[in-house]
Amino acid sequence: MVKFEISGPDRILFGFGTAEQVPELVREWGDHLCVVTGRHPERYDALLEGCRRVMKSVAVVSVGEEPSVELVLEALDKARAFGASVLLGLGGGSALDTAKAVAGLAVNPGDPFEYLEVVGAGKPLPHRALPWIAVPTTAGSGAEVTRNAVLASREHRVKVSLRSDRLFARTVVVDPLLTVSNPPHVTAWSGMDALVQVTEPLFSTRRNPFADGLCREALTRAAWALSAAFREGTNLEAREAMCIVSLFGGIALTQAGLGAVHGLAGPLGGMVEAPHGALCARLLPAVCRVNFGRVLQQRDEDLISRFSRLGELLTGVRSGEAALEWIEERMRELEIPRLRIWGFREDWIPDLVERAMRAGSMKTNPVPLRPEDVETIIRESL
After folding, report:
1. Is residue 239 located within the same domain as residue 166?
2. From start to end of the chain, where are the E strands?
3. Which of 79, 134, 190, 370 is 20 to 30 A from 293, alpha carbon to alpha carbon?
4. Do residue 220 and residue 298 come from a single domain?
5. Residue 314: CB partners within 8 Å, gap ≥ 6?
6. Is residue 276 part of a domain?
7. Which residue among 145, 178, 211 closes a domain?
8. Given this model, what pLDDT does residue 165 score?
9. Final residue belonging to a domain, choices 129, 159, 178
10. Strand, coil or helix: what is 171?
């Protein structure tokens, strides 16, 4: 029996030039706009100037690192002191997750830790988030359409989520033109994150026809566009395709869940200072190899067929082995760093294995992984 539930933002606008509509969109929700963006807000001077023309006041909060609980609390204090009536998340996944968390915590009383998973009580948010508009400037995280903000807790050396359907953006604006200026390494890391997020839902234990359709449509684009966008940043067709991959991945993971790549990347992100997309990219080949091996052992015909279909979508050859080879080729082409480059040490492996085995995304991996399987994945990614 097929059973699933669909939820998401109120509205999604996609296409070249759609960012020009942002000033009018934020004005619908109030007069005092707080913009959460990356470390170089001057990149978006034209868009911000358009907002200043229609709003009574505009404050800009710059996020220059992976989002953390501490960073969100600082941004929350600034937004409250400013009296923000609407937020604009403008940037990559870090800016969007920070804006999402600030929007949620701004209107929900009490200690913010009451609502955080793992390090807090994980209580549900009683009120819908302050209105916020999501405008991604990278093609990767899909954070613009997800229900959770992923935050590092520096104190606990772990990444946790603030998760609720009440966190969805009111409007999402995806303009591929905003991604053209991304340098090759950002294109590679964010693009691989997008690839992971249209691959893991296809195999998740919560897989369903709705997410399957999104993933398969996206994978046909990722097959050629990821390399093209990396090699030629001004290739508008490739940039548009990767924005679709990212958007579809964010929707698909929300509806179907993820797997061991994210089960490992979450706790790993709390142990090293590294972009989330770079960690997901490095973990993907080993996770796929281990999963495929276990699927073959179990003779699970549906999952074997899905690996074969993945190969067909990526290479035209209906073979799980072809899919694994294509992924390995992307690692070399995109120059994806190994985990040791980010400072991960071999003696940390037992700790990471223990943390990963408890991760929520590990529960929806297509096959149950043993601690020795997880250790193999980590060692192959070092």
Report:
1. no
2. 11-14, 32-37, 57-62, 86-91, 132-136, 148-153, 158-163, 171-174
3. 190
4. yes
5. 219, 222, 223, 322, 323, 326, 327
6. yes
7. 178
8. 95
9. 178
10. strand
Residues 85 and 35 in one domain: yes
Same domain, 97 and 205: no
Contacts of 3 (CB under 8 A, 6+ apart): 208
pLDDT over 90 at 131, yes or no = yes
Question: What are 358's strand-pairing partners?
Answer: none
Tokens 């003779």 label which residue?
A: 299
C-alpha 252/C-alpha 255 separation (Å) is 5
For residues 332 and 285, what is the distance between their CA atoms, to the nearest angstrom?
11
Within this chain, do residues 119 and 253 fall inside the same structural domain, yes or no? no
Task: Specify whether 123 is located in the same domain as 80.
Answer: yes
How far, CA to CA in Å, does 6 sit from each of 47, 65, 129, 308?
A: 32, 31, 19, 27
pLDDT tens readout for residues 143-183 = 999 999 999 888 888 888 999 999 999 999 999 999 999 99
- What is the distance between the alpha carbons of residues 69 and 64, in angstroms, rounded to a whole number? 14
- Contact criterion met (CB below 8 Å) for 284 and 192: yes
- Residues 50-78 have pLDDT tens digits of 999 999 999 999 988 888 999 999 999 99
- Residue 231: domain span: 181-381
